Amino acid sequence: MTSTDDTTRQTLVRRGFALEYATLGWNVIGIVVLAVAAMSARSVALAGFGLDSLIEIGASTVVIWELSGSGEDRQRRALKLIGVGFALLAVYLLVQSTWVLASGFRPHHSPLGIGWTAVTAAVMFALAAGKARTGTALDNPVLKTEGRVTLIDGLLAAAVLLGLLLNSLAGLWWADPAAGYVLVYYALREVREIFFGEH
């Protein structure tokens, strides 16, 4: 490897760290905001999205750990840790959303939740694009996978936002737990990709 290649790689690794730290910071703040919004609105979708933010924090921490070292064993372990987090999220949301629908529990409106999920969707899409480019340039499967986690975080924010808006504007209370099922689908898809996909 030439010194130019080495310099380029170091620049990309620094960018990877910066993207992960930005994701960490956003999600740490998000857990607090989502906890307040979920409790005040009694929203399963917001609670689930808060747990997704917690998993994203774990995933970013795993990538930071992986970028600090090297080796395929380290990468495989990092990917499995991210996969386990998604599996736990899917189980929780499946049980919680089913219980809410079966009991007819109606969540309240959440202006805070609507505002936060709208901004979060835009931020996560931007971070995901940066991680995808950087992970591809580094040929780093863990950073690329975590970039998909961040993209899913943006998609989930959009799904939760839609559920909150339908509940708030049209009184469709079931849209909130239905958004929880959307999160279950994406979480299970990532679990399958991590454990059975090609890495």
From TrEMBL:
Membrane topology annotation: Multi-pass membrane protein
Gene3D superfamilies in the cross-refs: Cation efflux protein transmembrane domain (1.20.1510.10)
The domain of life is Bacteria
Check the record and name the InterPro entries matching this protein.
Answer: Cation_efflux_TMD_sf, Tmem163
Keyword Ligase attributed: no
Task: Enumerate the subcellular locations listed in this protein's record, separating them with semicolons.
Answer: Cytoplasmic vesicle, Secretory vesicle, Synaptic vesicle membrane; Early endosome membrane
Which keywords are on file for this protein? Cytoplasmic vesicle, Endosome, Membrane, Synapse, Transmembrane, Transmembrane helix, Zinc
**Does this UniProt record's set of keywords contain Zinc?**
yes
- Please tell me where this protein is predominantly located: membrane
What are the transmembrane regions?
A: 21-39, 45-67, 79-101, 113-130, 151-175
Matches recorded under PANTHER family: TRANSMEMBRANE PROTEIN 163
| Family, as annotated | Belongs to the TMEM163 family.
Q: What is this protein called?
A: Cation transporter
